[in-house]
Amino acid sequence: MTHTVTEHFSEQLSLRARALLHGLGASVPEPGAWLARTPISGGTLLQLTADTPAAVDAAIDRAATAFESWRTVPAPVRAALVRRLAELLVAHKAELAELVTLEAGKIGAEALGEVQEMIDVCEFAIGLSRQLYGATMPSERPGHRLMETWHPLGVVGVISAFNFPVAVWSWNTAIALVCGDTVVWKPSETTPLTALACHTLLRRAAVDVGADPEVHQLVQGGVAVGETLVEDSRVALLSATGSIRMGGTVAPKVAARFGRCLLELGGNNAAIVAPSADLELAVRGIVFAAAGTAGQRCTTLRRLIAHTSVADRLVERLAAAYGQLRVGNPLDEGVLVGPLINERAFTAMQKSLSRAVDSGGEIVCGGERVELVGPDAYYVRPAIVRMPAQTELVREETFAPILYVLTYDDIESAIALNNDVTQGLSSAIFTLDQREAELFLAGSDCGIANVNIGTSGAEIGGAFGGEKHTGGGRESGSDSWKAYMRRATNTINYSTELPLAQGIHFG
Question: Where in the numbering of this chain does the Aldehyde dehydrogenase domain appear (predicted)?
Answer without folding.
Answer: 38-487
